[in-house]
Amino acid sequence: MVENIIELKNINKEYEGHNALKNINLYVKRNEFITLLGPSGCGKTTTLRLIGGFESPTSGEILFEGKNIADLPPYKRRVNTVFQKYALFPHMNVYENIAFGLRIKKIDEDTIEKKVKAILSLVNLEGFENRYIDSLSGGQQQRIAIARALVNEPEVLLLDEPLGALDLKLRKEMQIELKKMQQKLGITFIFVTHDQEEALTMSDTIVVMKDGMIQQIGTPEDIYNEPKNAFVAEFIGESTIVDGIMIEDFLVEFSGTSFECVDKGFNNNENVDVVIRPEDIKLVSLEEGMLKGIVESVTFKGVHYEMMIKSDKQEFKVHSTKMEPVGTKVGLRIDPNDIHIMKKVR
Amino acid sequence: MFLHTDVSNINDTVLTKKNRNSLFYRMKKNRMAYLYILPAMLVVFTVSIFPIIYGIGLSFFNANLYTMGNGTVKFIGLKNYVKALGSIDAEFFVVLLRTFIWTIVNVFAHVTLGLIIALALNRQNLKFKGIYRTLIILPWAVPQFVTALVWKMMYHEQFGFFNQFLGLLGIEPIHWLSNGKIAFIAVIIVNIWLGFPFMTMVATGALQSISREYYEAADIDGATAMQKLRYITLPLLKPAMLPATILGTIWTFTNFNVIYMVTGGGPSKATEIVSTYQFNVLTRQNAYSMAATYSVIVSIILIIITLINMKVTKALSDEGVE
C-alpha cells in the first residue's frame, strides 16, 4: 500500500496570467488530518479544488495512490468535499440530500436507507430525516454536509473552511468533533482554514501557504515552535519580530545587546529577523534583565495580561500573568531556546 | 368581595386590551402618522379603490348611453350577470374560452422559451453574454404598441415581410390577418415575442443566484447535465418562476394592446379576447354596466386562478422552495 495517498508534484495554476499556485509539492499521508493554512488569496482553496477535481492544474501532476488523476472528473476520484457554505439542496429534506449521490449512482433503495440511517447516527442527527435544511441550525447543517460527503465512502475528505459560518463556541466543539470523526473513520481529511488556532487544534500536519507558495510543512508543534520564516511566525501565534545581526553561530545581537541563541549556519554579521513569542519574554527586576524597558500599555486578556514594553526604540509584546503598571521600568529576560533566527526575506 | 374586585379588574383589563387593539384607538394614538399617510391614501382611494367599488356597483345597474341620457338608470340586481353567463352559447363564452387558450398558450411559451434562453445564456464560458442579454430585453423595452404595429406590417398580405419572403421561396402568400384561425395564431406569435424576455430576465436573475457549489456537489456524485437541470436548477428556479408565471397569467389574460393593434379583434371577431370584447361593448354599444359586469367576472376568474395556483404550487409562501 502506498504511504502517500495524495501527492502534488510541481503544481502550477494560472488564472488569466495570474499565478495562483507556484510549484506546489505536497505529500498527504494516508489517514492523516492535514490543514492548508494561510491568509485569503494564498492558494489554499485552489489547491483543494485541484485535488477535488473542480479545477485542472496548468502544469504538474496530482497523484492518487501513485496514479495521475489530474484529468479525472470529480466523481471518478475517491475524494469528497464539504463545501464552505455546505451546498445542501434547500428544496430537499435531510434524507434526500444525503441520498442524492447514492441515487445518482443508482444504488437500491434499501441500501440507501441503511446507509443514510448509519451516517446520520455517525453525525448524531438520528431522526432528522424529514427536516428541511432551512429548519436546521448552522451546526446541524454542517453535520448534514459532512454526512452527505461521507455517505459516498470517500478515502479523502476535503473540507473548505467548513467552520467559518459557525459561532465561536460551536466552532470549538466542531473542531474536536471533526478530529474524533476523522480518527474513528480512519480516512484522510484535508482541511482548509485561515484560522491558525483551528489548524493547531485539529491537524496532524499543517501546510502554511502564502502567495501561491508553501512556506512551511510540519506538525503543529514544529510550525509554532520553529517557524521557518517571519511570515509563518507572524501568522501562527503572536510574536515580536526585530532586526538583528548574527554575529557568529549561537550569538545574535538586537536592541543593542548580544544574546545567546541555538541557531547556526548564518554568515557572520548577517542581517537577520529575530522572532520572539510574547509568552517567552520573562519580566524580571531591572538588575536581572538582559534588556531594560518601560511598560507602555497593559491590556487584560483573561488568562494573562498583554503588555507593550519599549526598549531601545523597539517594542516587545509580553504575555504575563503578573501585571506591571504603565510607566514601570522592568527588566526582560529571553532564554536562548526562545530566540528564533530567520533569514531576512523582507 | 375580593373575588368581585378581582373579576372586575380582569374585565377592565380585557376591555382596555380590546380598546387598545381597536383601529380608532390606534388612529388616535398615532394621529400624526395617519396624517402623514393621508395624502397618499387619498390618491390610492381616488385612482384605485374608488374605481373598483364604482365598477362593481355599476354592474348592478342598467347604465348605458340611452338610460344615462334620459335619466332612467336603475338598480337591476344580477340581471347583467344572468345576461353574460345565462346562455352557454353566448358570445361571451366563446370569447372567454378563446381567452383561456390565448393565456395558456402564451404563458406556456413565455415560460418555456424564457427558461431555455436564460439557461443557454447562463453558460459559464459563453462570450458576449452581456450583449445577448441586452438584445433579449429589446422586445420588452420597446413600447408594446410599436412592436404590435411593426408585426402588423410584417403580416401585411401584399407587402409584409413574411409573404415577401415566402414569395421568394415560391410559396403562396398566407392570409395572416384575414383568416380567423391564422390571425389568432399570428397574434399569439406577436405576444410570445413580447412576453418571453420578461421570463428570461426573471429566470436569468434566479439562475445567477444559484450557488456554483450546488453543481459542484452534484459533480462529485457524477450527476449528468440533465440530472443537474432536473434536480437542482428547476427546483431552485421555482420560487422565482412561480410568482412570475402568476403575474404573466394575469397580464396575458387581460392583455389588450396586442390584439387591438394587430387585428382589432377581427376578422369577424375571430381574435376577440375578453379585454377587447369589453372595450367594444363599452365603446361601440356604450353599455357601461355590461362592460363593468364583464370586468367583475374577469377579476373573479383571475382571483380564482391565482388562488388555485398559489395553493397548488405554494408560491409566495415560506415553503415555496420545498
TrEMBL record, chain B:
One of its GO terms (biological process) is transmembrane transport. Gene3D superfamilies: MetI-like. It holds the Pfam family BPD_transp_1. One of its GO terms (cellular component) is plasma membrane. Keywords: Cell membrane, Membrane, Transmembrane, Transmembrane helix, Transport. InterPro entries: ABC_transporter_permease, MetI-like, MetI-like_sf. Residues 96-309 form the ABC transmembrane type-1 domain. It is found in: Cell membrane. It is a multi-pass membrane protein. It comes from the Bacteria. This is ABC transmembrane type-1 domain-containing protein. It comes from Fervidicella metallireducens AeB.
